[in-house]
């Protein structure tokens, strides 16, 4: 089973970023679907505790309840409309092929 990845700002994430294509945007597991402004990692529900947002994000725009990474922004997080088509970064549990 695989899920969108939860992105923590540590050295392991730098390795993940090396595989992303320049100029692209990627969905990751952060969302504030449950309570507007309270960001959590899906599906665990663990709170987003680090602050790696781009400038004024999350800005709470209409329908912007999903988190994405943008290479052109140095992989800072942005909140965006969940219906937009983007690439995604997934991780799988050990033992799954």
* Distance between the amino and carboxyl termini: 8 Å
- The backbone outline, from C-alpha atoms, is globular
CATH-level-4 superfamily name = Mannose-Binding Protein A, subunit A
Number of helices: 1
Biggest sheet record: 6 strands, mixed
Protein name: C-type lectin domain-containing protein
Domain C-type lectin: 1-91
Organism: Pinctada imbricata
Pfam family, one: Lectin_C
Provide a compact summary of the structure.
This protein is mostly beta strands. The chain has one helix and eight strands, in the order βαβββββββ. Strands 2, 3, 4, 5, 6 and 7 form a six-stranded mixed sheet that branches.
Provide a descriptive summary of the structure in words.
Helix content is 7%, strand content 33%. The protein is mainly beta and 97 residues long. It has a single domain, classed as Roll (Mannose-Binding Protein A, Chain A), CATH 3.10.100.10. Strands 2, 3, 4, 5, 6 and 7 form a six-stranded mixed beta sheet that branches. It has a two-stranded antiparallel ribbon with strand order 1-8. A hairpin with a 4-residue loop joins β3 and β4. It is globular and about 35 Å long.
